[in-house]
Amino acid sequence: MPSRTVTVGSRTGLHARPAALFVAAAAAQPVKVTIRTAERGPVPAHSMLSVLSLGAKCGTEVTIAAEGAGADDALDTLADLLVQDLDAEAADA
Amino acid sequence: MPETLRGIGVSPGTAGGPVARMAPPPVLPPPRSVADPVVEAARAVAALATVAADLERRADAAPGAAAEILRAQAMMAGDPVLSDTVAAHVTDGRDAPHAIADALAAHREAFLAAGGYLAERAADLDDLRDRAVAVCLGAPMPGVPDPGHPFVLVARDLSPADTAGLDPAAVLAIVTEEGGPTSHTAILARAAGLPAIVRCTGAGAVNDGVVVGVDGTLGELTVGIDEAAVRELADRDSTRRSRLAASHGPGRTADGHPVGLLANIGSARDLEGTAPDAVEGVGLFRTELLYLDRPSEPTQAEQVAAYSAVFAACAGRRVVVRTLDAGADKPLTFLNQATEPNPALGVRGLRLAQRRPDVLDTQLAAIAEAAKASTADVWVMAPMVATVSEAAEFVDRCRAAGLPTAGVMVEVPAAALRADALAGAVDFLSIGTNDLSQYTFAADRQVGELAELLDPWQPALLSLIAACGDAGRRTGTPVGVCGEAAADPELAPVLVGLGVTSLSMAPRAVAEVRLALSARTLDECRRLAELALGADDAAHARALVRAVATT
Predict the structure, then answer these.
(1) DSSP readout, B165-230?
(2) Which of A37, B233, B319, B389 is deepest in the core (most CB within 10 A)?
(3) Tens digit of pLDDT for each residue in B197-206?
(4) Is B355 buried (19+), middle (13-18) or exposed (0-12) by CB count in 10 A?
(5) Which residue in the set A19, A43, A53 is minimally distant from B111, CB to CB?
(6) For residues A2 and A77, is the Cβ–Cβ distance under 8 A?
(7) Minimum-distance CB partner of B118 among A27, A47, A52
(8) Strand B14-22 relative to strand B211-215: parallel, antiparallel, unpaired?
(9) C-alpha–C-alpha distance, residues B528 and B538, integer Å
(10) DSSP at B354
(11) Do the beta carbons of residue B203 and residue B10 sit within 8 Å?
(12) Alpha helices in B284-341 (DSSP H)
């Protein structure tokens, strides 16, 4: 199954705003995506409660996986989002 | 014809607008058997969607960081995994409220297991559960309401936690069914300058959205008024506010009899935003703040710094410092206070100095050191004094510490009953009406049901104040009032008529009291005092005085 392993770039981790942005992006993909850390998961990436429960912090390694048509594109989009500091926008705004 | 409900007016002013009720968290009813799981599951999922939509709407209206938190919470409510779990629970035979509570409880466990930041967010899940269960039961949403427009907040009572989330800009007025003139609601409303009524029976039955008028001076809630009446109330309030803004300078009756108008504070911060000429000084500086939540006594140097900050803010003005008022109801770790069966009647206030004289002596030394380095006129008083000898001993210790002006609080009826001897032994008296009420009427301040007994208009309380006022007049001793009673503009002329020479209150309340005093001569104040003393109860006293005021 195609997968990507990246480290979380948001300074507060995969919480509040970064988690909301990631979950919304995952829900918008044509394929079902899962996310896990070394200790927890995999869980559905479009579930806010499940993603939060991973407790992924800044620098935590996470693996996202998906199968089917468009899986690679979806994973690239989401991996790109995960490595960014999604809190930076909020701090600058 | 609009219906009028009556309560106790605790914060003056008038306002009108739609009601929004603050509901308590819903109680989960006993489980019931589900006839049609498909319909029941749809009901549960719809409740979650309603909550998510409501949170989204609130997020759109909220500023910055608050909006992000609400949006994240909305996404939790709208989580598809959550609705799947809830639907599965219903298929297993649970009713909608229990299916929701159980599903969220599982996520709560996961949050707590993850620890740290997530564990702190567990309360968000409890809030979601309460909201979704309330929707299922057809009960109002719990917590501080946010209808998206200014509203009159109606609640059973307000706790400090409830009011932390309150946006004073969105609230037009506050009405509670319980609470009393000294309740948290009353204090908050006066501090925020919002009209407020407490003990307003029947207010909770007024539905959300019904337009009401609130008169926080008369304590009247008018249900079902029209737009013209709302405008009239708003106009009246803006006239009142502009009259207040125009009032300044020292407190005086219409014929020029001076009445000191002072501020109650807990630290120098409480004076921020108060113009130097808005108050004549500080009538009650509570020093407990320094001692709370710490394993050891604050050092003399730490205390000097805190006291100096207040004295510097009051250069050239009076500051009345109250020595440590701790008791088993607010225990201090370093004092090793045991729990007492009845803390209000236990070892508190000056009584602690018997056990730990060093704590009082360090405090007096720190006050004296800070006073020496400032131009403030520093007075010191002891809380919870019951006998003349206790008062005399305290005065001796103050003098020994180099503090020339020493007085005592009158909070215990025993002290008021010996007012003459007491006034002879000290430099000033300061009446703490909140505690004096609770001890005179044998009525716990924490019990809302007893609020009427704790009303500062009670003639028996006024008699004790009169005893102090008479003693002050005979001996030339200043007599202040520093309880919530001092902030009641209708009561202020009565207190002055009883012989009170200064009133100390939240800085915000001063203008209203100044205006009320300037409308009465000293003789009129004395006549009002006689009327109130002759009444049968608090409501009667208020009505008699009000009848004169409106003629």
Answers:
(1) T--TTTEEEEEESS--TTSHHHHHHHHHT--EEES-TTGGGSPTT-EEEEETTTTEEEES--HHHH
(2) B319
(3) 998 999 989 9
(4) exposed
(5) A53
(6) no
(7) A52
(8) antiparallel
(9) 14
(10) H
(11) no
(12) 300-313
Whole-model pTM above 0.80? no
User: Which of B199, B273, B94, B290 is CA-nearest to residue B539?
Assistant: B199
Is B118 in Cβ contact with A55 (below 8 Å)?
yes
- Whether residue A20 and residue B72 make contact (CB cut-off 8 A), yes or no, is yes
In the A/B pair of chains, how many CB contacts fall below 8 A?
57
pLDDT tens over chain B, length 551 residues: 689 999 988 888 999 999 999 887 888 889 888 889 999 999 999 999 999 998 888 788 766 666 777 788 899 999 999 999 999 999 999 999 999 999 999 999 988 887 777 776 787 888 899 999 999 998 877 877 888 899 999 998 876 556 656 777 889 999 999 877 766 677 778 777 889 999 899 998 999 999 999 999 888 999 999 999 999 999 999 998 888 888 788 999 999 999 999 999 988 888 887 777 788 999 999 998 888 777 788 999 999 999 999 999 999 999 999 999 987 566 777 776 667 888 889 889 999 898 899 999 999 999 999 999 999 999 999 999 999 999 999 999 999 999 999 999 999 999 999 999 999 999 999 999 999 999 999 998 777 778 889 889 999 999 999 999 999 999 999 999 997 789 888 899 999 999 999 999 988 788 889 999 999 999 999 999 999 999 999 989 998 998 886 65
Q: Which of A52, A40, A73, A93 is nearest to B125 (CA)?
A: A52
Is B184 catalytic? The answer is yes
Residue in chain B nearest A43 by alpha carbon: B81
Complex-level ipTM beyond the 0.85 threshold: yes
Catalytic, B398? Answer: no
Task: State whether B114 and A23 contact (CB < 8 Å).
Answer: no
B291, burial (CB in 10 Å: exposed 0-12, middle 13-18, buried 19+): buried
What amino acid is encoded at A6 in this protein?
V
Distance of alpha carbon A81 from alpha carbon B276, whole angstroms: 54
Which of A16, A53, A90 lies at the smallest CB-CB distance from B72? A16
Question: H or E element: which one contains B453?
Answer: none
Q: Would you list which residues of chain A are within 8 Å, Cβ to Cβ, of chain B?
A: 12-13, 15-17, 19-20, 23-24, 27, 43-44, 46-50, 52-55, 90, 93
CA angle B447, B18, B7 (to 5 degrees): 30
- How far separated are the first and last CA of chain A, in Å rounded? 38
Name which of A15, A46, A54 is nearest B80 (Cβ-Cβ).
A46
Set of chain B residues whose Cβ sits within 8 Å of the Cβ of A43 = 81
| C-alpha dist (Å) from residue B530 to B467, B495, B527, B544 | 13, 11, 5, 10
Catalytic residues of A: 15
